[in-house]
# Entry
Amino acid sequence: VVDDLAVWLQGAYGQAYRTACLILRNPVDAEEAVQEAFLRVWRFRSSLPDGDGRRPWVYRVVVNTCLSRRRSDRRKSGGDVDVDLHLTAMAAPEPGPEAAAAHRDLAGALIAALGALPEHLRVPVVLRYWAGLTEREIAVAIRRRPGTVKSRLHEARRRLGDDPRLAALASDTEEVAP
Amino acid sequence: VIDEDVLRALVAEAAESFPPPREPLPQLTEGRAEPPRRRARPFVLGTVAAGLVVLLGLVGLTVADRLRDGSARTVQNASGDAGDGLTSEPTAGGGTATGVPAPGDAAGGAGGGGDGGQVAPPLQATKVVKTGAVEVAVGEGAVDDSVTRLTSLAVGSGGFVAESRTFEQGERPAADITIRVPGAAFEQVLGEVRGLGETQSVTTAGQDVTAEYVDLEARLRVLRGTRDQLLGLLSRATTIPDILAVQDRLNATQTEIERLEGQQRVLDDKVALGTLKVTVTEDRSALNTAAAKPRSGLAKAWDDAVDGFTSGVEGIVAASGRILLVVLVLAALTAMALGGWKVLRRRLL
# Structure
């Protein structure tokens, strides 16, 4: 069981790291937060549910660690993180300057739009559309009722739909996607 | 509202735009093979074991107390005794005291508390008023002897005869004698009284008046503080109405102090000397007059052994309710602690 959990955590590390990136919008902080969260999961592994119940619990730890880190950072610096600083630090996964610029536009717009969302809306969006958790699993991860998760997801989608830059990119994506 | 699939695609695009982690996840299994839960177990077991040891100790002490102090066999007639005691209280000051604390008492108490001379009273030792009633049937013509013997018993133990009455019951002589004996000698005297003849009935009671005593002491402390303050005020009063007003309060306070001191003296007296009421009747069928022929040491020892055994069993039965309650409370606390620990650990995650 112990080896199984270690293997599982190693496998989930990449996705959890990017979840934390989307929540914190800072790769360095995200990496530290996920490592801290995974070590915490390991330390308290005896109270971790087995099987399908494991994933939402691990994400609960990840989310909690991210949020507490963010709060302590905010207390220290007295403000939010500057999104643009991290956008310039991003790697361009696709070759070619145009593709890279387009990619950065898209990613930057989404990250900025996510950043504009309050935490209680941003976290469910990231967990649902990146980590792929179900509404019920998100409910476990953020300790809210499934109905609350549903309404928060709807509210988040409505606000993202209202974002003009994102709406323009979304229409481009829709045109390209089919 | 943004479309779910579009949002999913956008989020994926944004997530993948972040650089990969600089360092891989550290090896989790190194040096951390044992889950922490195993360390928690001995702590929980140790706590439960310590609780049980304390519980057993308490039970042992309770039972030992019961065995030593037979006066706890029957507790009765407590309020009646307290009422008797109050009839002899002194009422200096014309009986104006009503027992209701005067309005200034609280202020007096607060003032007393702030006074450096006031120290917290020491822990009060248990004060028990012992009472008992024994009916003894003695042999023909032995009633007078028994009364004499009872008198010498009372005096010999450091007490006295409070009341003595001889009368005819049918055509047989009988006597009622109430003796006061020191609390420490109460059991011994009781045993000797039972040895006078054939015991018809025995009732003993031990009334714990510690709380009442402590209450009296506290009230007295407050009232004395008030009195001191009033005396201070009196010395500073300059006008006649002021002097009269302070003096009125002072009189009332002094009266109350004396009334409570009287109650305290009565309680002290009751605690110091137990009351044993003995009814001696003549039983013609009793062949042996115990007054003339006291029981042998072996018979007395046997009776004492039976008494001791009975009171021990009674003590255990009486304590069993308390034990059960303590066990239930401990079980509930343990369950709550374990449940709380589980929830806490999940929350800590």
Summary: The radius of gyration of chain A is 17 Å. Chain A has a mean pLDDT of 81. The longest helix of chain A spans residues 54-77. Chain A has nine helices and no strands.
